[in-house]
Amino acid sequence: MRFHKIANVNKALEFITSKGVKLVSIGAEEIVDGNVKMTLGMIWTIILRFAIQDISVEETSAKEGLLLWCQRKTAPYRNVNVQNFHDDPLGNLNLAFDIAEKHLDIPKMLDAEDIINTPKPDERAIMTYVSCFYHAFAGAEQAETAANRICKVLGVNQENEKMMEEYERLASELLEWIRRTTPWLENRTPEKTVAEMQRKLEDFRDYRRKHKPPKGKMVSDIANAWKGLEQVEKGYEEWLLTEIRRLERLDHLAEKFKQKCAMHESWTGGKEELLSQKDYESASLMEIRALMRKHEAFESDLAAHQDRVEQIAAIAQELNELDYHDVASVNQRCQSICDLWDKLGTLTQKRRELLERTEKLLETIDQLFLEFAKRSAPFNNWMEGAMEDLQDMFIVHTIEEVQSLIAAHEQFKATLPEADAERQAILGIHSEVQKISQSYGVKANIINPFSTITMEELLNKWEKVKKLVPQRDGALQEEMARQHTHEMFRRQFAAQANLIGPWIQARMEEIGRCSLEIGGTLEDQMTQLKQIEHVIVAYKPNIDKLEGEHQLIQESLVFDNKHTNYTMEHIRVGWELLLTTIARTINEIETQILTRDAKGISQQQMNEFRSSFNHFDRKKNGAMETDDFRACLISMGYDLGEVEFARIMMLVDPNATGLVSFQSFIDFMTRETADTDTAEQVVASFRILAADKPFILVDELRRELPPEQAEYCIMRMPSYAGPGAPPGALDYTTFSTALYGESDL
């Protein structure tokens, strides 16, 4: 019965679910009713769970792991590159199926022709087939693993038996080794030097490190012997370390004594000769004071080394008390250091007295040197600055700048008498120094330590300043004359440029007004443009004359002109733009005339087209951009979708420049006006939007039309007066006929 069949299938589904298989949208009823699609889907889920899902290679998913396993197993084979489970040629498939059935007991589940003739073979079927290969090879690997495990266990057991025999032999040798080693460890005979004790310690460490560890294979019958060995070993090690520490202490003190003596002797080397030299006899006052500061620093350093001398004596005393084996050399070295120390103290005091006496002799000369330095440095700086200013290569561009330089130069000349008085005062100080040096017979080389400036340098610079002053006067007067000439050139150029620049702008505006006029005919515009062109050509000599004035300015290296905002480059660009604009505008008007005559467009239509184009030519460059062209079409009543607008752009802008010229616009509009919509077509279109109702609602207009067109219709469409209309219904029929002049609306 159906009921029993459903119950039986539910038992099977419960078992499948308990094994972790997720069954989605499948029940017992579908299987009992023979739903092939659902049944096959459930079978694939079972295959995926029990044959494929457990396959994992390097923590990948079942599908990815199975694919990775296939790639690795086929890697050594040439011309094999497995990338998925649905691509393979016919010959390879038949060969694989035959070998699998013959050697691996894998039944042939698929026909190669079915796989090849299918554009994309079923991936699940291929995965199921390949999983059989995976499990077949996995079973073979498990048998090999089991055999290896048995061999490993037997090998371990055999090795254990060999180790037991070896252990018995080593135990016997160990007892004999302990009996030989114990007397050596009980020997406490000390050595005299640390090196010899270190050798004993190294022997002991070799025993610990090399000889003892291999003997450590103990059993219970040799435990006591081994324990006794370790006790003797511990006592021997403690004795070695204590004796080494004692000898190290002596060596440390001796080494410390040597280091401090070496440092002290290194410091005292050459100090006796230094204190005995007579360098102060030929030194200047600054050098004497430097020697005094240096001597004071030496005295401080000498006092600081007193502590080291005391430390050397204390260490020598301790070595004597500890009966150091080389104490005689220690005492001799210590005495030598103490004797030299006393001598250095005596020489230091004597040198201080000589330096102080020499310092007083040179103080008078030093005061004069200081005064000379204080007054000569500013005076020298003033003269160097004056020479730099007088020789400065001034760069000016205006008469006012030259006048400013002349005024500054006159102020400088007014300061010369005061500077000459300062020169004479400095010369007097120098003469006084020479007089004192000769009177007292000073042996020192009389050089001013406060200044590197000599009196000879000051006198030479003063003479040079006096020569440069009249030279500067002449250069400033020459520059003034040159700037007057430049100013004349500027004014001549500015007078012409201030007339030509506005004239060019006026002609440009006149051309623009002419091209935008829509009141007259194209022939009238052409006549007016020809007249403007004649005026422009006749104005060319004025441009040539301005070029001549500009050439004079360039040759004179004049780069600015405050009398005009126009440059020659501005005038050239404006003139070329004027010529280009008049030629282009005439050409456009001629083209419009030809288009009008060829396509039968009335003058009124042409004016309307021109008006619309001029309005949306926002940049006024004779072409509409894409967005402006779209807005223009919408304002003229076009209902544009993206596809329709793209089609129109292909017509008006075939080169995809993003610009629509007036000629392209005219060509498009002439084609459009030749095939206009009728009032009936517009009414039919509104009826579609109104879902076949004789009226249309405000919400429908706003939903179906662009916002601008929807509001336009709402403002102008009359209310619907027919029967059954809801409030706010609008009469689109009357509105449509009014658009074409067929109604009084």
From TrEMBL:
Coiled coil region boundaries: 153-180, 288-322
Stored PROSITE patterns: ACTININ_2 (PS00020), CH (PS50021), EF_HAND_2 (PS50222)
Record's keyword terms, sorted: Actin-binding, Calcium, Coiled coil, Metal-binding, Repeat
Pfam families: CH, EFhand_Ca_insen, Spectrin
Domain EF-hand: 604-639, 640-675
GO molecular function: actin binding; calcium ion binding
Sequence ranges assigned to domain Calponin-homology (CH) in this UniProt record: 1-51
The keyword Iron-sulfur is annotated on this UniProt entry: no
Keyword Coiled coil in annotation: yes
Superkingdom per UniProt: Eukaryota
Family: Belongs to the alpha-actinin family.
Protein known as: Actinin, alpha 2
Record organism: Nothobranchius korthausae
Gene responsible for this protein: ACTN2
